Amino acid sequence: MDQETAQLLFKEGAIFILLDVPLGTEFGIDYNCWDVGPKFKGVKMIPPGVHFIYYSYKKWVSLTNHITSDLLTLLHVEGVKISSVTALKSEKSDSLSRAADRLRNSEPVRDVSQECQSIKEAESHLSKLQFAPHTSVQYHTVPRKYPVGASPADVTKYSLDSSYALSTMIESCYDNKELLLLGELQLSFVCFIIGQVYDGFEQWKKLVSVLSTAQRAVITYQNLYMQCIKVLYFQLKEIPEDFFVDILSQQNFLTDTLYEFFLNLNNEEVNDELRKRGAKFKANLTETFKWDFSREPDEYAPVVVETEII
């Protein structure tokens, strides 16, 4: 910037004053960004026009502090651009190639101008769509709750306690680094709440469910659950009260899931610090959202079976 321009901006330019900005806060205007120092008071000599001013905030750190480079490598997110609209890519095909496919599948070849007689037949005329590369996060698949070859009795036992699924996931997906699971929990939540990606919400629900229903794992992975409570606390501060309520049933899946979560934390083998943190979290949710964790969800209620005498 030459001296004449600098003097003009000093006289004519705008001044943006920011006081008491915490040391190290990321501050930016347009394409310029800095980590502020102890003497930062604002920006001067701003030329006329529209400007974009932004800064980082602690809230973002609390929503992403477990998302590490190791996790991003595991999920193959390098170069991924997420979108609220699913990006699909059509395979190259034409009428002749689709007719050839039907011949290979022993289906009669029809004139494409003729009216289709079934949904399956109509779909055969459509282009084959696939997910466009680098447009979605490849989340880990939550394992089933019981091992292969489990007896009927074991299937019942494992279905009531998802500790096997959680332990299997920690071992096979995260190489026994259990806090990476919380990173995926945070990533899926951020992708949904910021990026409006529904797949992120679905993955978040699955991870919350497997963490909440793992009765024995609460004892094995107590540090994981200490950190999990902090993660959920900051996440739930970002959502409206009725966000998780099913419109049709008026049932909140999260209250039912967290009922089990708090029930599992109230175990004599769980250390006092974890139980106290769980109790504070429960009290906070009750006060903030008016959620009632004192009564069992409907699925635990006794069922009256009426028998008809013949």
How do the SSEs run, as a string of H and E? HEEEEEHHEHHEHHHHHHHH
Q: Helicity, in percent?
A: 40-55%
**CATH structural fold name of the largest domain:** Serine Threonine Protein Phosphatase 5, Tetratricopeptide repeat
Which spans have pLDDT < 50 for at least 5 consecutive residues?
Answer: none
Task: Supply the number of structural domains.
Answer: 3
Structural class: mainly alpha
Strand residues, percent: 5-15%
Instruction: Identify the strand order in the major beta sheet.
Output: 3-2-5
Count of helical regions: 13
What composes the largest sheet? 3 strands, antiparallel
Q: Total number of β-strand segments?
A: 7
- What overall geometry do the principal axes of the alpha carbons give? globular
Q: Rg from C-alpha positions?
A: 27 Å
Describe this structure in words.
Pfam families: AAR2 (PF05282), AAR2_1st (PF20981). Keywords: mRNA processing, mRNA splicing, Spliceosome. This protein has 310 residues and is mostly helical. The protein has 3 domains: 3-56, no CATH class; 92-126, no CATH class; 152-300, Aar2, C-terminal domain-like (Serine Threonine Protein Phosphatase 5, Tetratricopeptide repeat), CATH 1.25.40. The protein has 13 helices and 7 strands. Helix 8 (179-193) packs parallel to helix 11, helix 9 (198-212) packs parallel to helix 12 and helix 11 (222-236) packs parallel to helix 13 (272-289). The protein is globular. The mean pLDDT is 82.
